[in-house]
Structure formats: C-alpha cells, structure tokens
Amino acid sequence: MKAIPTASDSRAWATIDLTALQNNLERARAFRPDAHVVAVVKANAYGHGALPVAHALRSRLRAGDCFGVASLDEALELRNSGLTEPILLLEGVFDAQQQAVAVEQSCSLVIHSLFQLDLLQQYLAANPAPAASLTVWLKIDTGMHRLGLSPQEFAQVWQALAGEAAVGKRIIMSHFACADDIGSDMTARQLALLERTLDAAGVAQEQREISVAASSGIQLWPQSHYQWLRPGIMLYGGTAVAGEYAIERGIAPVMTLKARLIAIKQVAAGESIGYGASHVCEREQRIGVISIGYGDGYPRRMPGGTPVLVKCQVAGQSRTRQVPLCGRVSMDMTIVDLTDCPDARVGDEVVLWGEGLPADEIAQRCGTIAYELFCQVTPRVHFIYA
Ligand SMILES: *Cc1c(COP(=O)(O)O)cnc(C)c1O
User: CA 232 to CA 230: how far, in whole Å?
Assistant: First the structure.
C-alpha cells in the first residue's frame, strides 16, 4: 500500500492555509458587503487545488453567489465532487454538446460572441422548458479586446434573450485591461463605454445587474463594484495591484512552498557553482542544496540573489534566516548561499514563497506575477491542506 505522503518525507511540498483562503474571501466581500460574489476557482484554483479550495469556500458563499471556472471540464470536476452551488462558465460554451451539458449541470453561461447566442437559441428551440430558468451573462468588450460583444452585438443579444422564456436573468459583465494600475485612465474609459452601451441598448436602470470588478477592481475601483464582485488572485493571497504585495493590504498568503536542505558544503574562492558555472565564488562560500527546482515549478529563470527562507534550529528554538539563491535553478535542486547563515543544517526546511516571503516579491524577482508562480507548481509537489 502506498503511504500517504507527509511533509516529513517529502522533498518539496506546499501547505495550503484554508482559513486564510476563507478570510481572504471575507476581505473581498467587505469591500461591498451587499454585492454578490463569483469565487473564481479556475485553473485548479490558481494551482491551489480546485476541490479542496471550492469545498473550503462553500461555507462562505451566500445564496446567489457562485463559483467561476474557465471551462466545462473544470465545472464538471466541481459537480462530480458533490458541489451544488451555481457555477459560472467564464468563457461560456463552444459547441452544442457543451451547451446541453452546461444546462443539465446547472452552469450559468457567459455569452461573449454571437455564435454562443446561436448555440443557446438552438438548444432552447429543441428544449423549450429546461428544469430551471437560465441565468445568462452577457459579456461586453469595453476595450480590452479579448472576449466580449461589441456594443451593437450586445444590443442584439440583450433583445434576443428578452424573447426567450427560459432565460430568467440577464447579467451584464465586462473585464478591465488595466485595473491593476491606479494611474491608468483606461478603467474610467471602459466604465464610460459600458454605461453608454447600456443606454444605447435601452437597458433600463432597474434591469442593470452588472459585474465588472475582479480583484484589482474590487480593491482599487469602488465605482466598478456594481452588484457583483469576481475575486480570483486576492483569494489566494496574491496582489492584483501593480508594484504592491498583497500582504500590504491585509491579504494573507494561502500557499507556502517548501523544501529541504539536502546538502551543505564549502566551496573555495574562484570555484564556480551549478550548471553553466554561472556563479563564481568571490570568497570561500558555504553553500546549501535544496530539494526543489523547475521540475516542481520553482522557475528556472529565478535570478541569483532571490531570497529563500531557512528555518534553522538554534539552541532548540526555531529561527528564520533569509539567504540568497546562488547559481542556476536546476530540475530537482536549487543552490543557496549559506555563508552568512552558520546555523543552517541538512534537513532544515526552507520556504520558497508564502508565509514570511511574499509570492508577489518572488514573482517580481523573475519578471512575472504570483498568478503564474501558483499555476506552475507541478504535480510532483505534495499539497497539504490545513
Ligand atoms: C480570472 C478572472 C477573474 C479573476 O481575476 P483576478 O485578477 O484573479 O481577481 C475575474 N473575471 C474573469 C472574467 C476572469 O477570467
């Protein structure tokens, strides 16, 4: 029988703090307590594990809230695990078969393109009385130019759905391109175009149920809150604000990525370290090898000097020391400089990001965002939920 892995026998593991996750949802909601929430759990809950995350968030959803996923596959994974809450397909469906399954599985649909209106209308022509009335989200392209109906297409879809008896609710949505940047005027322009589009389509004020704000809109643009919030990264403790760390706004880390020191050695001045001999020792160095690499999702492009935390034992007390990465990250291992950390011993735990070391900071070091770091953690890493 295969033993259940524990931290003590893992070479690389991630702890997921489900209480922090739940608290982060409450923080998001606190920005607009009377709004509904789409808890975004796409991409395996940003690499955190869709099922444990969704089940932990369930108790924090209110009537009318829903989960948001990118695809029907992701929705079915949630449904098959017993989740009964509404699920929103953020990109809608792509063919007639998906259309049918989505309705059967009570998933709400986004219509971002006219072909999706056709799919829905063909489905309803064949199935005029679905078990429950459908909620349809109409996505307007207000300037990001990724997904969304043009203002004219929106008016057409809005009218067409008014004539479908099976459609109970029409929710209007859009997505911002630059909401992470408080200095950008793009967000105000997108909101103005949204309002103009609704006016032009003759959508009455009392018909306007609107969803625009993702994590950045929630935190920076109160005028974008309307009736729905769609938090993603802020649930997982990453920042959605350019140049900031989430922790500065009271959003707690959820994932802490850990490994172990598996070797320590002295290297003489003038010797080089790691693949490509990219690091040459200017002095005698005490180096440590840690059991994580790009095969686990710690990016190969992480530069020398990136901070790593070592949990040392000093006279029976746990002490955390920050040490710099040194040389090239390899598939299974990464090297750190322990010269100024004499307390480190083989077997000590190290933290690559998370508790005490913001993923936002580590992401910045290698020119990306915490979203990508989280999504790239590989299945070799053991996940431990607490
Ligand atoms: C992913 C996604 C979100 C969540 O975005 P965050 O920046 O992670 O909060 C919200 N809305 C849509 C349409 C998305 O695709």
Answer: 7
- The answer to whether residues 57 and 85 touch, using CB atoms and an 8 Å cutoff, is no
DSSP 116-167: HHHHHHHHHHH-SS-SSPEEEEEEB-SS--SS-B-HHHHHHHHHHHHT-TTE
Cα(239) to centroid(ligand 1), Å: 13
Residue where the block lists tokens 């200017």: 282
Torsion angle of C-alpha atoms 297, 303, 305, 308, degrees rounded to 10: 0
Q: What is the pLDDT along the chain (386 residues), one digit of tens a residue?
A: 444 555 556 899 999 999 999 999 999 999 999 999 999 999 999 999 999 999 999 999 999 999 999 999 999 999 999 999 999 999 999 999 999 999 999 999 999 999 999 999 999 999 999 889 999 999 999 999 999 999 999 999 999 999 999 999 999 999 999 999 999 999 999 999 999 999 999 999 999 999 999 999 999 999 999 999 999 999 999 999 999 999 999 999 999 999 999 999 999 999 999 999 999 999 999 999 999 999 999 999 999 999 999 999 999 999 999 999 999 999 999 999 999 999 999 999 999 999 999 999 999 999 999 999 999 999 999 999 99
How many helices and strands, by DSSP H and E, does the chain display?
11, 18
Interval between CA 153 and ligand 1 midpoint (Å): 23
Specify the residue with its C-alpha closest to ligand 1, atom 15.
90
At residue 137's C-alpha, the angle toward residues 135 and 140, to 5°, is 165
From 89, 212, 228, 230, mutation site for ligand 1 pocket: most ligand atoms within 8 A of C-beta: 230
Report all structural domains of the chain as residue ranges with CATH numbers, in order of start.
18-238 (3.20.20.10), 255-385 (2.40.37.10)
Pocket of ligand 1 (CB under 6 A): 40, 42, 90, 175, 214-216, 230-233, 240
Which of the residues are catalytic? 42, 275
CA 184 – ligand 1 centroid, Å: 19
DSSP state of 325: B
Which atom of ligand 1 is least distant from the CA of 175? 13
Say how many Å lie between the CA of residue 359 and the centre of ligand 1.
18
How would you label 212-244 residue by residue, b for 16+ Cβ within 10 Å and e otherwise? Answer: bbbbbbbbbbeebbbbbbbbbbbbbbbbbbeee
